[in-house]
Amino acid sequence: MSRKTVASTPKTIQNVFVLLLLSLFACLSTFLVTIGAQLYRSTVDSAERNNTGRIMTAVVRSAIWAEDGGNVMVEKLDKWGITALTVVEEYDDETNYKRLFAYEGSLLETYTGDDLEFDPKYGEPLCELKEFEPELNGNVLTVHLKAVDDSENTIRMTLRAGGAEK
Amino acid sequence: MREGHRANALLVELLLVILFFMLGSTTLVEIFADAKHKSLQARAMNFAIMEAENISDDLYGADDPDKVLQDLGFTKENDSWILTQKEYTLTVTQKDEETENGVLRKFTIDGKGDGKDLFSLPSTRYIPKEVSP
């Protein structure tokens, strides 16, 4: 009886050792996979934030530069609860309004004449955007942007060809 | 005796597997660290470019560029203005070119991050001379 006990003890130790090695292997692989997944997620999130920021600012900058020849003003459209950046242009005695504003999670653009009433629903979506707050000081335009993921950016632009309407 | 051999073989097998696993893990961790570093670099470059675009526009509209740069937190070193942030450094150099009818004011905004040149953004403004009637 005692011989059996002596013989089985090293075997038990060996089994425990194997089990320990296996659990170490399992723990390490889980750790590696978790770290890898977290890092991948943070890298993708960071790239996404960078892209969103770049797209938001590029869209606003190019939209303003495209119509920089007109008078730029900040318009409060209380009926809709919107602050729009409006570029007023006159062609052949007709006044046209290009408006940039945030509405229902998107940056929208409308281009209307005097005869049409503004309605944000007819805006053309440019990109996803939560908040769009333009401010005009002289000919310096400052726009605060907030993306859907709550990342914030500020654009400062000097109006070139046109001018700010007071 | 045979059972003992089998157990030993299993142990050696396990140790070999763990050894190769560790080697693979080391390579993977290095790759992860590299990816994280590149992601941080991209973030820094993104911030730096957006700030440089803003500064470029500020300088374009400025009558006194030195004051604008000073207000933005730049410090003058030799002939250039330097702004050091946590993730990047911006250097602004100005070069004026006298022409017949005015001055061509050229700014170059250089971005550096992690000891590397990230970008160079030029900004030019033509200031015509006042013409007497």
Architecture overview:
The complex is a heterodimer of chains A (166) and B (133). Chain A starts with a helix and ends with a strand. In chain A, strand 6 and strand 7 form a beta hairpin. In chain A, strands 5-4-3-2-1-9 form a six-stranded mixed sheet, covered by helices on one side. A three-stranded antiparallel sheet of chain A has the order 6-7-8, with helices on one face. Chain A is built from one helix and nine strands, in the order H-E-E-E-E-E-E-E-E-E. By secondary structure, chain A is of the alpha+beta class. Chain B has 133 residues and is of the alpha+beta class. Helices cover 50% and strands 32% of the residues of chain B. A five-stranded antiparallel sheet of chain B has the order 1-2-3-4-5, with helices on one face. The mean pLDDT of chain B is 87. Chains A and B meet through helix 1 and strand 8 of A and helix 1 of B.
Quickly describe the structure.
The complex is a heterodimer of chains A (about 170) and B (about 130). Chain A contains one helix and nine strands. With about 170 residues, chain A is of the alpha+beta class.
